[in-house]
Structure formats: structure tokens, C-alpha cells
Amino acid sequence: MNSKVPFGRQMRETHFGFAPSFTPFNHGSYGATPLLVLRRQKEIQKLELERPDPFIIYDLPNLIDESRKAVAPLLGASVDEVVLVPNASTGVNIVLRNLKFEEKDVIVHFSTIYDACERAIDSVSALTPLTARSIPLQYPIEDDEIVQRLRDMVQKVGDEGLNVKIAMFDTVLTFPGVPMPWEALTETCKELGVLSLVDGAHGIGHVDLKQLGSISPDFFVSNCHKWLYVPRGCAVFYVPIRNQHLIRSSLPTSYRYREDESPDSNGKSRFVMLFEFVATMDHSSYCCVPAAIEFREIICGGEDEIIRYCLDLAAKGGQRVAEILGTKVMANKSGSLARCCFSTVMLPLVLKDGKDPVSKGEFHTKDVSKIKSWLNTTAFKEFDTYLQTDSHAGAMWVRLSAQIYLELGDYDWVGSKLKELCERLVDQGLD
């Protein structure tokens, strides 16, 4: 690989393959992979194309082991505690569909849970005795209050004669784009005798997770294809040794499924073997983890440099957009909501509840989906960008992803476009 390249425009033009007119502000949803890492993926795909059977049978297990060894230090975990799965949603489903739920068992989560994870809980609850309780959250809020609400819910469920078996929470929320105190929530779960399932979809490569192994949640999954620059789809699934007996099957069930707990001839545990080859698919993204980490180290200067730049850009850029719009960035008094690479900025649109008529420039909350659709579609068609917008706490917001291929001038640009879009929407309405 070449030497370090400055972040911003030069990084974009040298190492990413975006269309010249496209401005990427939604990295958090699907990620973006550097060209050098994609080159490695093509090499791997070529090897499989040339000799499919030997590659899958002999080479692939070794390449996946190399990826596991490369990614484990980013979590401060043992290589024997991490395996690879296609995405975070798969990891969440693996946990929920392996645990044995009995009458009176409850799973608690926060109202800000990712939609697909909530649907997974609904699905499992339809087939088992499990019931779910949602803890309402309205941002901005302080971390201590979030932790206290978990405590209060566990107490409330216990007072009803029920048992909170597992709690699910995020490292960084999908929307609004803010960090959660996953470390304190994990410690609280241990104290209360509750299993912890951390949805770290926006975790690895985004926030510092090197203490995860010592904090040791019961289950953790994080997408490598978002913030770590690995090609889609690849996620790291962490299960500490103490809990690996609870994961009886992969999803779908691998041909390696067995009850035998003894390691194989190579010393690999049943847990690792279970996920080594689940089903025929394109595993090339799994094999690109070392290349992505090497890119981050050599071209970018390492994890700390990347995170530092993106945090600073998110803070300054989000504030710049808020100033242009005449609104504000979502923030709390302690400043903890700024500890991620998202900036969630309020849009100058007035939402109103109820059935009463709205004045010009005002919108019913029931029209949020129409507002989102208009903003997103118009931004793409007219300005060649995609904006992640939604409502929260009675207001409309946009979630902007800071990345090494963006710079402050890009925020000036997107702020002006957002202002134009909102002014048009206020003036013209949704009709």
C-alpha cells in the first residue's frame, strides 16, 4: 500500500470510487470500501473462480482465521471469542433464536431500538413464551438517566413476578445518531443478573471498543462493512467463552452443527467451527478484514487518527449545518451525545400532533413519512446526495455521517441544500 494520504477531498479522490457528482453523507447506513480493499476482494474472488473446491475447502478457513486474528484486538478480545457473520441483524437473530425462553421471561429494550431488531424480537415472541418491554427514550437525555431507566424497568418487571432474562441496547443508535452508554448498561446487567445483548452495528471502526473484552457483554455484534471499510456484508460476532455453550446453532444451521463440545484436530472450538462455513455464499468480504485494517493503519494513520478526525468533523460540521438552518445539533449538558461520528441536526420544519388544521409551513406528525420521502427523493434527484431524515421528540432531524473522505466545506454545501429543500417544503407544502 502507498503512504498516508490527507483526509478530505484528496482521500476521496485517491482511494474511494464515488461518482464525481455524488456527495456521500450517509456512510452509517451501508459504509464505503476503499479501492485498495476492493482490489483485494477481487483477488480473492479470482482465486475462488479459478479453483472453487480447493479454495473453499482448504484456503477459505485459513483466510477467515486471519480475519478473526486481525479484528479481535480492535475489541480487546481473544480470537477464540470472535467469529464472522454477514451482518449485525444476523448476529442478533442468532442470539435470540438460540436462547431458551420460559414462561415469565422478558426481554427489555429501548424505544430507540433498530426496527429490524424489534421485528426479530416480535418474531421470537410469537414462537416462544418470551415477552418484550420497551423503555421509552426521548433525546436529548443524559447517560445516567438511561442507565437508571434500565434499572427501573428491571425492578418493575420483577415486581410483577416476571423475570428479565436479557436486555438489548446499542453502542451508537441508528436514529437519532447518538452514542449509548453501553459500558455502564453492560455493568448494570451484570449487577442485576440480566444477560446483555449489544447491537454494535455502528460500533467497530466508529467508536473505541478496545475495552469491550474486559467489559465483556454477554453477546455483541458489529458490522465491519460500515465504519471499518470492509466490503459488504461482514460483521464480527463476539461471544465470551463462558457463553459459547448457549449458541448451539448458526443461522442457518451449519453442517458442522453437533452436540460434541470437544475441539477439532486444529484446536478450534465447537463455537468457532460452527461459523467457519455456514452455507455457500461469497465469503470474499470476510477475507478482506486484514486489508481494511492495513488500509486504516498505513494510509490513514491508525484507528485513533480516523476516529479523532471524524469526531472533530462531526462536531464542527454539525454545528455549521445548524447555523445555516437556524436550528441546533442534538446535544445534552454532559456532552456525551457528541462522542460519535454522527451529527443529528434539527430541521426548520414544525410538526404538530392532533387533528386540528395546520397553518402554512406546519405539518402533521402523521405526514412524517411523506416529509422524509420528499426530502430524500428530491435531494437525490436534484443534488445527487442521500439524506437520512426522520422525526424524534416532535421534530424533524437529519443524521449526517462524518468520514475521512469529507471535509468542512461539504457540510457548508449540504447545509445550504437542506435550507433550500426545507424552504421549498414550507412554501409549497406536501401537495
TrEMBL record:
PANTHER family: HERCYNYLCYSTEINE SULFOXIDE LYASE, L-CYSTEINE DESULFHYDRASE. Gene3D superfamilies: Type I PLP-dependent aspartate aminotransferase-like (Major domain) (3.40.640.10). Keywords: Pyridoxal phosphate, Transferase. SUPFAM superfamilies: PLP-dependent transferases. This is PLP-dependent transferase. Pfam families: Aminotran_5. The keyword Transferase applies. Residues 63-241 form the Aminotransferase class V domain. It comes from the Eukaryota. GO terms for molecular function: transferase activity. InterPro entries: Aminotrans_V_dom, PyrdxlP-dep_Trfase, PyrdxlP-dep_Trfase_major.
